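for the record, two folds in this file. i put them one after another cuz i was lazy. first one right below, seq on top, structure tokens after. the second one comes after a little note so u can tell where it starts
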Amino acid sequence: MIIYKTVNLVNGKIYIGQQSTNRKDYLGSGKILQRAIKKYGKENFKKEIIEKCSTKKELNEREIYWIKELNPEYNLHEGGIGGYNKFAVEANKKKKNKTWEKIYSPEGLKKMEKVKKNLIEMGKKYQFQELSKNRRKEIATMGGKATLGTKRSAESRKRISIALKNSEKHKKAMQSEEVRNKIAKSVSKVSKELWKSDDYREKQRLAHKRYYEETPKVKKEDLIRLLESNKSVTEIIYELGVSIPTYYKYKKRYGV
């Protein structure tokens, strides 16, 4: 996990980004950076590693730190999790030197407030899950709550909390190479022990047989149609997309 700096060798402008694995050909995904690469050419950009991190949390925190420290020209956001945020909105407003009142007329702002109010009221009136996907998205965007209309008991909330905590513990544990190797070895051992059992092998054989009986590679109607077309065996096999033994196996099964 690394924090990297992409430098424009023509004008000296920079971009700060993060990566889980160091891909040397990857310079960054920022919109302004991509436009600059298109304009100046990829050969005029150089990537440098400025810090290595051990966890995702640390990676996000250090990216935010370096963006504040170096004030890169090609970054729109404050870093970390990513996506459009308050930092990006303020940056765009300063760049344009306009407030929302200047961008939209007073009448336009009143209409936007009315729409926002109606959407939030709709979320209170109806079950959130009953609304369409786009309508739920609008309510969430305008300040509504994603769980609006859903009532959970104290016991239900407790179960959700425990599940989330266990999920975080599981993710943290699975990041350890030692834990992953231990699981892989135990799974391999169980699998080998199972295949020693005659009952298990017989069950697997029957399941395999049942699968191919329900979903055959060659359907009877297709085989009969091709045989009636007076085509050669080679042509029939080629059209069915099977091997010669498979062709004769299904021919014998269907009695044609």
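(here's the note) second protein begins now
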Amino acid sequence: MLRERLMEQFANIDFQSAAEEVAARRSDPYSVVEHWIGRSGPGQLRIDHLGIAVQSLEAGLGFYEQQLGFPVSLRETVEREKVNVAMLPAGDARIELLEASEPDSVIAKFIEKRGAGLHHVAVKVPDLVATVERLKSQGARLLNEPRSGAGGHLYVFVHPSSTGGVLLELIQQ
């Protein structure tokens, strides 16, 4: 699995051009590899998942899992958030289906107000605590302090008024 993931991660690299650069002594193999790793490795911001609010997790899974063939990598209930979650890997990112487990949950209120659909975009950051402090100092509106969520990851939400209109979830890498 690791070999396959690494090959996918580096599939768009032009190895021939890199080899020509090294052969012409305009670059060296170490710099080329560092560039590749830096472009897609740890420390880089990347989309972790798209959170989609659904009326019914089973109906949502009927589409994503049964019709499109997305596998389910995690199913759990997050009691604090009053939500049932299903995670579906989608390349380097995931789709997170969110179903309210209680009528007063944030997801239930979201669906009541806006209908089912995209709830948030989640981005992994290398240092969540430092990112939160920087955002606070710049006046960003955060909806919570960092806390543990689905899958045990540490996260914080940034209000749409600070992000240009989309609820943004920041996750510790």
